[in-house]
Design goal:
Length: 496
């Protein structure tokens, strides 16, 4: 039997979708009060009766139709988890734009205990704004989809095209340990949709929420996550497409940074789940760059970069990212000794000069790690710090690392006159060892190394003898490997 039809003896005429929704959510349950009838706040286009839902044997139901949404909300409203509360709803709502694009707004009373909200705002090239919100509380489930003006057919299709990507994002955030599935939203066509903003607040424990804010637009991308475990912040400057590399080059640079983040996490004893979110966010924000960067805006008129220029750059959009773990004080006898982890990295690129024949390119990368943590002095004995003096056997380590890399390229009258890549890295490790609360050793181990490569002779030789296409590709890969930011001083080569 079609659950959207009321069981009446008055023929087969369909009732309104609001009444069907009420019927689904108001069935009596043993030892429980009847739920409050859902209130429809606004529905821009509500069919009074549809033959699609008039018969039990209906063969096809549009998942974005009023009745299908009503049934989905009724089913989801009893869920105690965000994953069940919002299951399929985001995709169904945005999917409405593949047909009529009608607004929709409704509330359903429920018996679930999920505490979560997700909203999406989409700005089109014509200036229209589409807003979607999903909200779940102990009292029920509410959804809203609105557009402040009529969309063109191409805009409707572009909005509907994000339906699956939005649902992926919602499903990831709804997991018991929220995950990021945002790369599909990065694929929005900037020629039609100029910006996409996602905001969410998910209860991960009673009274504890994880908040997520994503923005992707023609000039910038950003992601911010705040929760009980700490926070991450990632910002990309998308305004200089002339400096971007191809997908292969960008993927190599992203992989290099993920290796750097992993190394910092191991060295600083970071929380694995927070680092995983950071890595996912960095990877996903750097996915799906616009396919025609030459047509995008740039702050410089110097556009015509050569293959060697690109090989000496990371290929990534400039960025500023950070991760900060929630501070803990695990030693009740030494409250000033804190467990911390803070890491940040950035890249900035500048193009200058009168024209492409007289241009100067500089790219700077940096990272900084500051962390502190307690460990057991014995590998096979777990740390167990209490207020008893006998438990005070531990090492307290403080880390302070920094790294920097810079690329400088200069042309005069069309000739390459300078090409250098510089690297420097410093690490400082301070360890205090305690036995039965007494400091028995206090050591500080600093290290530093720097190196500069002059690549002009190599590039000049390659220009005179370019070799085969395969050899040129290998030479470009070698140049690009030099651009990797290196935080470990021991891995910086003093000589080529």
């Amino acid at each position: 039997m079609n659950p959207l039809l009321l069981n009446t003896n008055q023929g087969t005429s369909a009732t309104s979708w609001q009444d069907r929704l009420y019927a689904l959510t108001s069935k009596p349950a043993a030892a429980s009060h009847a739920p409050i009838k859902p209130s429809v706040v606004y529905e821009a286009s509500v069919p009074s009766a549809s033959a699609t839902y008039a018969g039990v044997g209906a063969a096809s139901v549009d998942p974005s139709s009023n009745d299908a949404l009503a049934a989905l909300m009724a089913r989801n409203s009893a869920s105690s988890q965000p994953s069940g509360l919002f299951a399929g709803l985001g995709q169904a709502l945005l999917g409405r734009f593949s047909t009529e694009g009608a607004d929709f707004q409704a509330d359903v009373a429920g018996a679930g205990s999920a505490d979560a909200s997700v909203s999406l705002a989409i700005r089109t090239a014509s200036g229209a704004t589409v807003k979607l919100s999903l909200n779940g509380t102990q009292s029920g489930l509410s959804v809203s989809l609105t557009s402040d003006r009529t969309l063109s057919d191409s805009e409707k299709q572009a909005v509907a095209g994000l339906a699956s990507a939005f649902q992926d994002a919602v499903d990831g955030l709804g997991k018991q340990l929220p995950t990021l599935s945002l790369d599909g939203l990065m694929a929005a066509d900037p020629a039609v949709l100029t910006s996409v903003d996602l905001n969410a607040s998910i209860a991960t424990a009673p009274g504890v929420h994880e908040s997520i804010a994503l923005h992707t637009g023609s000039d910038s991308r950003s992601l911010k996550v705040d929760g009980a475990g700490g926070s991450i912040a990632l910002n990309l400057d998308m305004s200089q497409p002339a400096t971007w590399g191809n997908r292969t080059q960008r993927d190599a640079s992203v992989a290099s940074y993920l290796d750097q983040i992993d190394a910092a996490a191991r060295r600083g004893h970071a929380d694995a789940s927070l680092v995983s979110l950071f890595k996912d966010g960095f990877s996903q924000l750097n996915s799906h760059y616009p396919s025609t960067p030459a047509s995008a805006s740039t702050r410089s008129s110097v556009r015509n970069l050569s293959g060697n220029d690109h090989a000496m750059l990371t290929g990534l959009a400039d960025f500023d990212v950070s991760i900060s773990q929630a501070t803990q004080a695990p030693n009740p006898r030494q409250g000033s000794e804190l467990d911390t982890f803070n890491y940040d990295a950035s890249q900035s690129t500048a193009l200058s000069g009168r024209n492409a024949s007289d241009r100067h390119i500089t790219q700077s990368q940096q990272s900084h790690l500051k962390a502190s943590f307690h460990t057991s002095p014995w590998p096979d004995v777990p740390l167990n710090l209490t207020d008893k003096i006998g438990s005070q056997n531990y090492n307290y380590t403080q880390i302070d690392d920094s790294a920097h890399a810079s690329t400088n390229i200069a042309y005069a009258k069309g000739e390459l006159v300078a090409a250098t890549i510089s690297q420097d890295a410093s690490q400082d490790t301070h360890v205090m060892k305690y036995m039965v609360g007494q400091l028995i050793d206090d050591s500080d181990t600093p290290s530093h190394r720097d190196a500069t490569r002059d690549l002009l002779p190599l590039l000049t030789q390659n220009a005179r003898h370019p070799g085969t296409a395969e050899e040129q590709a290998m030479a470009a890969d070698t140049l690009h490997a030099y651009t990797k930011l290196q935080a470990d001083p021991s891995r910086i080569a003093l000589h080529d």
